[in-house]
Amino acid sequence: MSRVNVIALLLLILLVVGLLLLPDERVQRIRHDALGSAAPFLRAKDAASKVVDGLVTEKPTYEQLEKDCERLYQEVERLRTSNRDLDALYRENKELRRALNMHKMPNFELVSAEVISRDSSTWYNTLVIDKGTDDGLTVNDPVIVETKLVGKISVAGPDSSVVLLVTDEACKVTARVTSTTYVGISEGQGSQGPSSVFTGQGETQGSRGNLTPRLRLRYLDKFAKIQPGMSVFSSGQGRVYPPNLDLGTIVAVKPGDITTEAEIEPAVDFGRLEFVFVIRKAPDEEDASGPEPAGVEKP
Amino acid sequence: MIFFAPVMFVLFWVMMIAQEFLAPWTVTTMFGVAEVYFFLPWVFFYSMALAVPYPLMVAFAALAGFTWDARWQVPGDSLDLPFGSSIVLFVVFGSVVQGIRPLFRRGNWLLPVIMVGLAVFFQLASQYLLLSFRRGSFEFSSELWFTVVFTSVASMALSPVLFWLNSRIARRCGYELEIEQFTFRRSYGHQI
């Protein structure tokens, strides 16, 4: 081996060792910058796919739009009324918590985001949204749709973020089985193989093949009385995910020697996600009569 | 070489950008469903590994591995693929591919095409094994193998296009990529 080759290899080894020793913050910074550089292309891809979709899908008629508009007005009015009730309950709850000297629950606010890409990363189930650190998002912020848990932010770029889905083995959520006190840890199924959520044509593979993106609820009590059909929610322990976010429904129970394991059908149809909400921690309130729960529209 | 290397550098970034627009394809076989990925930067790197000297291949391995890990490896937790691991894999399999560079220079593309597919196969398999080892769960489903094999076959299908592109660019840049091929042809089957 020539001297030049040896020098090249030594330099490479130095580089790799340096990268392996990099602190997590620096790695996150590098990924932040890389995602920031890729964001314009992701947006271009999203725009192009929308143009193509617009060409092939049928446009709604004026009457249909008018009907939709009317329906949405009614929905807004109903939600405003509901929010007024929730607001009163929130204040009451806050007063009672203070009276009982209980730990204050963290205050959250919602940031809406649009899905702009399904990553073609081999080993991870991810998608990319169009909001990032410029909008106040940070790594590990939970991502939801309606009241269902989608995942958490894994890489936060300046104006886009990578969301690691709950169907990924690396995304672990402390979960509780509904109407019980059984708590376990939910994670994606590694056995389903690489990136088993998206087909690239906007459908989940679960509907057609064996690659059903299911979750595994592990470390349940050995004698847990659970059965298929029961719902599973986030427990709020660990303080990464808020409590009571829907994870899915139990489809199978596997009792083990030490713990029980359950298989969960996810609540979210990941292939059809277009818009999601990111839950970010709101600034702490200063006084008891502080602002309403963030993300709740004022009547 | 002075012009060829910078052009390859630019072309690598073009491949990285093109990768952003590629989504995996789903293939349904009689045995199950598999996803087929088109890893343009990987195929480009391995096809380039056949075209450039060893030190330059190592430099491109560093570039390809770093950018791939920065953009495409998503950190879940501390048990995931370490940042920089792709550099090691690129340089290991790039070195193996370099072993058949003389054959490529003689104009034989069959073995290089197979080698590109094998390099992609072993790189994917290595990543999966490393990930499984760090997470402590070795699970090998048929879907996993289908995905790895089909992705490797797709890479093999892409590689001749990139070989041809590299040859054209080399010729334009005055870089003698296949000098032995031309001497072989000009001498009607006999080495000069």
Describe this structure in words.
- The complex is a heterodimer of chains A (299) and B (192).
- Chain A has 299 residues and is α+β, with helices and mostly antiparallel strands.
- Chain A has 2 domains: 9-57 and 107-283, Thrombin, subunit H (Beta Barrel), CATH 2.40.10.340; 59-105.
- Chain A has 3 helices and 12 strands.
- In chain A, strand 10 and strand 11 (260-266) form a beta hairpin.
- The longest helix of chain A has 39 residues, at 62-100.
- The model of chain A is unreliable at 191-211 and 286-299 (pLDDT under 50).
- By secondary structure, chain B is mainly alpha-helical.
- Chain B has one domain (4-19, 39-73, 81-186).
- In chain B, 68% of the residues lie in helices and 5% in strands.
- Chain B contains 8 helices and 2 strands.
- Chain B has helices spanning 4-20, 40-49, 54-72, 85-98, 101-105, 110-135, 142-173, 179-186, and strands at 25-29, 32-36.
- Chain B has a two-stranded antiparallel ribbon.
- In chain B, a hairpin with a 2-residue loop joins strand 1 and strand 2.
- The longest helix of chain B has 32 residues, at 142-173.
- Chain B is globular and about 50 Å long.
- Chain B starts with a helix and ends in a 6-residue tail after the last helix.
- Classes of the chains: A alpha+beta (299), B mainly alpha (192).
- Chains A and B meet through helix 1 and helix 2 of A and helix 1, strand 1, strand 2, helix 3 and helix 4 of B.
